Amino acid sequence: MLNEVTITAFREQSGPVFTEVVQRHRPQVIRRGRDDRGLLVGLDEVWAMVSDREFAPQVMRGDEGVSIWLPEFEVYGEGDSYAEAKSELLDEVRAYVQEYLENADEYRRTPNRAAHLPHVVKALIAETRGQLEQVIFPGPPDLDALRARLAAPATA
Amino acid sequence: MPIPDKRDVKRFCELDGWEETQAESPDHYRYRKRLDDGTILRTKVSHGRGPICRAPQLWTRVWRHQLGLGSEDEFWEVLRTRKPAPRGAAVSQPAEPQMPAWLFEALVYTFHVAEDEVRSLNEEEALARYLRLCEGGETSA
Question: In the CATH scheme, what architecture does the domain A4-41 have?
Answer without folding.
Answer: 3-Layer(aba) Sandwich (3.40)
